[in-house]
Amino acid sequence: MVDITIHEGITYAERETGEMKLDLYVPESETPPLVVYIHGGGWIAETRANIPDPERYAAEWDCAIASVSYRLQAVPARADIEEMHDPANPTPRGTFPDHFVDVKAGIRWLRANADAYGYDAERIAAWGSSAGGHLALLAGVVDDVTDLGEAFTDEVEKTVVPEEAGTVQAVISWYGVADLTLTDDAEGIIPVLMGGPQSEHPNRYAQASPVTHVTSQSPPTLLLHGREDEVVDVEHSRRFFDTMDDAGVNAIRYELHDLNHVWAETVEDIASERVAMDLLVADPNHAQSVYEATHVEKGQSPDPLLADLPPAGPETIRQFLDRTIK
């Protein structure tokens, strides 16, 4: 097993509401690529500790892994979402697009400090789950926070190593939110995130949706989603995949039959992302369907994102990273 050097609680940004921090796990190999993990929790809950065994997978994949905190959504006193709010959570809070601004700041900081910690600044993948999947997808298709759109122009400011690029070369999304316009809800977390219902803020909903920003230059993406997801409908990953395909970008989508959010069997069984990979490993033969979009230039040979379509799990991610950032 490769030795891993762990750096915990690194401050990458100072915000009015507190310090933004990240944890970094670096294998002792020659300049490995970097995976930036963005945790889930409905944009309002959990911390950067909500990550599947980063020390283990940094070693197995021979990639540095950084788990990045981002400002969580400030929560109004509303019964429909208040139960998700943990007052003891020390993570600073803000309002969208602060979450995205922080993720991009973390990526820029990590790129600027690659030599100091021993990973490759030019080979970076974003990996996120649920709300973190939304932020990872957005980080992939929006090169710079200032490109998010006119609905957010006045709320975006680059203060952390602004000269560095915030781009990533690959994206992994676990049951991520890809299209906020799919919801017409007047209550719940998304109207809180967007400052009101879609009927009042259509541009905010569209511009905060990763699917809106896909172009032919978007990075290759691996999508994994449960067909029975009651928290983030599988239609999010389907729509994002189709948009990538239409744009001529390579993508691959796994749909896990009969599984809910965070690979649970029912919504009542949903647990932390810390154990999500373990659930996949425990049942690698769970029924699943795989969809590939592999685009070939005239005169070239196909170069699929996965070598042999392994069951959804750590081997899937390892092969995807091998093909995209190694």
Detailed description of the structure:
The protein has one domain (4-324): Alpha/Beta hydrolase fold, catalytic domain (Rossmann fold, 3-Layer(aba) Sandwich). The protein is built from ten helices and eleven strands. It has helices at 54-61, 79-82, 98-112, 114-117, 131-141, 189-194, 202-207, 235-246, 276-282, 314-324, and strands spanning 4-15, 18-27, 34-38, 64-68, 72-73, 93-94, 124-129, 170-174, 221-226, 251-256, 288-293. The protein has a nine-stranded mixed sheet with strand order 1-2-4-3-7-8-9-10-11, sandwiched between helices. The protein has a two-stranded parallel sheet with strand order 5-6. Helix 8 links the parallel strand 9 (221-226) and strand 10 (251-256). Helix 3 crosses helix 5 (131-141). It is globular and about 50 Å long.
Measured by DSSP, the beta-strand proportion falls in 15-25%
Q: Please count the helical segments.
A: 10
Helix content: 25-40%
Placed side by side, the strands forming the largest sheet appear as 1-2-4-3-7-8-9-10-11
What topology does this entry show?
Elements: E1 4-15, E2 18-27, E3 34-38, H1 54-61, E4 64-68, E5 72-73, H2 79-82, E6 93-94, H3 98-112, H4 114-117, E7 124-129, H5 131-141, E8 170-174, H6 189-194, H7 202-207, E9 221-226, H8 235-246, E10 251-256, H9 276-282, E11 288-293, H10 314-324
Parallel strand pairs: 3-4, 3-7, 5-6, 7-8, 8-9, 9-10
Antiparallel strand pairs: 1-2, 2-4, 10-11
